[in-house]
From TrEMBL:
This is Multidrug transporter. Signal peptide: none annotated. Coiled coil: none annotated. It comes from the Bacteria. Keywords: Cell membrane, Membrane, Transmembrane, Transmembrane helix. It comes from Corynebacterium crudilactis. It is a multi-pass membrane protein.
Length: 466
């Protein structure tokens, strides 16, 4: 556990560094150019590349030692940040920035690549929990991961804007370069004891031997190991676990609904608060993420994390339906705090389920594919929701919609169109969660989780005993 805690601290340092620099760059570009399209394109490229690269990253994690993956990630981030610093010093003209500036795009590209490569270690961290933490304690460990991520989010959201406002882009860049060096140096002495990595050749030999000895379980498990982007192998693993595909699709649907929050939370908040106060409110409500993760780290998720995951989403749906039902600032802030506080339970539940039902040597690919599918849903829905709200719902609620039943339910105010979108998305999520509770996939995955135990060497035992 002491090794796990050191790895967790190192990952938080790396996450804070990359998040800090990326968001600082976005703030800096907008303040320097005033170009909304440019900042939107950069953010979209960043999210899209994370989704695409996660599948490849997962394969890399499965075929290499986790310490090596983390060290490579830190080193690659440092190299690309150093290249961006060279572009800043020798090429970029800070007084001549525009969407057509090649030097700006090269500078931003190096920072985006350096930040995206760092996400490889987040996938590795999920498998390290399986590797280092006893099975009975993994839900609590995942809660601790959530708490640490909350701390990272709080730090990043506070320091990124402040650094650009008070220090400027150049000093911010040097700070992040220094932090990247610290993260790499801190990681190097950490030793992670890990089983031998199965190569393609040794896997084929094991499959042949298992076939000759008529051991089909071992053969089917090892035959999944392959080189490159193993999308087919990832799907084979997911489909072999009853209800797991439904779980990933459910999480993706939640991210699709989550696009409502991504698109409208800031505009709605800015209708209620000044920009300065809204930034402060975001910082305060992010404490809910830390508190929620800490509670899970203390209490765990119960005997059935699948059930816990669905119950948490009932809470999320309730928050979505009621936290903007009136334009009361305290109701909105309370709703966001509750949302932040229960989110770590959902994330920890999904991680805990995958860590038990997916063989250790294939977990990287499954985590990577799940991250890719889930993250791809959010940017798409964010764009759609923003267009629908701006073009239809906001004008409608400001006009004829105010005299309908929705005007009675949502009251009066300048942001009733956004409130209607929040209410509708929460209601849709509630219906989907209730249907999920009644589904065969829920029952099958719950039963499989209860009767399966993860062998750290990578085998899955369905006998119901360790």
């Amino acid at each position: 556990m002491s090794t796990f805690h050191r790895v967790l601290v190192n990952t938080m340092l790396a996450n804070v560094t990359t998040g800090f620099l990326f968001f600082a760059v976005v703030f800096w570009i907008y303040l320097a150019t005033g170009d909304v399209a440019l900042t939107g394109i950069i953010s979209g490229i960043y999210m899209g590349l994370i989704a695409i690269s996660s599948i490849f990253f997962g394969t890399v994690v499965d075929h290499n030692r986790k310490k090596s993956v983390m060290a490579f990630s830190s080193a690659a981030t440092l190299v690309f940040y150093a290249l961006s610093a060279l572009v800043w010093v020798f090429w970029l003209d800070e007084d001549n920035l525009s969407i057509r500036n090649i030097a700006l795009w090269v500078f931003v590209s190096f920072i985006i690549i350096g930040s995206i490569v760092e996400h490889m270690r987040n996938i590795a961290l999920s498998t390290v929990v399986t590797l280092l933490v006893p099975e009975a304690e993994r839900d609590k460990a995942n809660g601790l991961v959530g708490a640490v991520q909350g701390v990272g989010f709080l730090i990043t959201s506070v320091i990124a804007g402040s650094a650009i406002g008070f220090l400027g882009m150049e000093i911010t860049l040097w700070i992040c370069l220094a932090l990247s060096v610290v993260a790499l140096v801190h990681l190097l002495p950490i030793h992670i004891d890990e089983p031998e990595i199965i190569t393609q050749e040794s896997a084929q030999e094991a499959v042949q031997q298992a076939t000759e000895e008529t051991v089909p379980t071992a053969a089917s498990d090892l035959s999944i190991v392959s080189k490159g982007i193993d999308l087919k192998g990832s799907m084979k693993i997911i489909l072999s676990v009853p209800g797991l595909l439904a779980l990933i699709l459910f999480a993706s649907f939640n991210n699709l609904i989550g696009g409502v929050y991504s698109a409208l939370m800031d505009p709605y908040g800015l209708e209620l608060f000044s920009p300065q106060i809204w930034g402060l409110m975001l910082g305060l409500t992010s404490l809910g993420f830390i508190a929620g993760g800490a509670i899970i780290a203390k209490t765990g998720l119960g005997e059935n994390p699948v059930r816990t995951l669905l119950l948490v989403n009932v809470g999320v749906a309730g928050v979505g339906m009621f936290f903007a039902i009136r334009e009361w600032w305290w109701l909105y802030v309370l709703g966001i705090f509750i949302f932040m506080a229960i989110t770590p339970a959902a994330e920890a539940a999904e991680q805990t389920i995958l860590q038990r039902v997916v063989p250790f040597r294939q977990q990287g690919r499954v985590f990577g594919l799940a991250m890719a599918v889930e993250m791809a849903a959010n940017p798409l829905s964010t764009v759609i929701v923003a267009i629908l709200a701006e073009a239809y719902l906001i004008p409608w609620m400001a006009g004829p919609g105010a005299d309908t039943i929705w005007g009675i339910i949502l009251g009066e105010g300048t942001a009733r169109g956004m409130a209607l979108m929040f209410f509708a998305s929460g209601a849709i999520m509630l219906v989907v969660v209730l249907l999920a509770f009644m589904s065969k996939s829920y029952r099958k995955l719950s039963q499989y989780y209860a009767t399966t135990h993860q062998d750290i060497a990578g085998a899955v035992d369905n006998s119901g005993t360790h």
